[in-house]
Amino acid sequence: MTNIPVNFYHTNKPFGEFSNFYRAPIQLDGHTWPTTEHYFQAQKFISDETHFQNVLKLPTPRDAFNYVRTYKSFVRSDWASVKDEIMFKACLAKFQQHQKLRDLLLSTEDRTLVEHTVNDSYWGDGGDGSGRNQLGITLMKVRDVLKG
C-alpha cells in the first residue's frame, strides 16, 4: 500500500472521473442530472424553480458553474452551511450509480484524494497544498461508505 496521494482535476487525465465535471448522469431528487456539478449548482436555487430548472437544462457543467456567477444574488442564504452535505449527497449518488466509477474509487484504497488545482482553495488544494481540499475529503468519506 502506498501513501502517494491521488491527484485529480481534469476529466481527461488519470482519475478525472472524480471531478464533478465528469459526465456521469445521476438520478437524484426526482431528476436526472447530467453531472454532479449540475446537481450541486442547482441546489443553490432550491427555492427558485426558474433558476433551478435552468441549471438542470444547461448543456455543460461549466455552463452550470458559470450560471451561478451570473445569478449569485438569488443563491439561497444558508448555502455556506449546507454545501458540504449537498456535495456529499451528489458524490455518493454518482459512485453508487456507476459501478465503473465505484470500482475506480475503491481501487484507491486508503490513499489521500486531492483535487489538485490553483483554481480553488476550498474544494481543491489551491495548487500548493494550502487549500482545504474539501472535494477530496468528501470523496474519501464516500469511499468509506462504499467500503461498508
Description:
By secondary structure, this protein is mainly α. 46% of the residues lie in helices and 8% in strands. The chain has six helices and four strands. The strands form two sheets. A two-stranded parallel sheet has the order 1-4. A two-stranded antiparallel ribbon has the order 2-3. β2 and β3 (31-33) form a beta hairpin. The protein starts with 5 loop residues before the first strand and ends with a helix. The model has no long low-confidence stretch (mean pLDDT 97).
Strand order of the largest sheet: 1-4
User: Residue share in helices?
Assistant: 40-55%
Determine the structural class based on helices, strands and strand pairing. mainly alpha
- How far apart are the first and last residues' alpha carbons, in Å? 20 Å
Q: Whole-number average pLDDT?
A: 97
Biggest sheet architecture: 2 strands, parallel
Count every helix, treating DSSP H or I runs of 4 or more residues as helices.
6
Overall morphology: globular
Q: Say what oligomer this is.
A: single chain
SS elements, strand count: 4
List the uncertain runs. none
- Percentage beta strand: 5-15%
Radius of gyration: 15 Å
Provide the succession of SSEs.
EEEHHHHHEH
Offer a concise description of the structure.
The chain contains 6 helices and 4 strands, in the order βββαααααβα. It has helices spanning 36-42, 49-57, 61-70, 79-97, 99-107, 134-147; strands at residues 6-8, 26-28, 31-33, 113-115. The strands form 2 sheets. It has a two-stranded parallel ribbon.
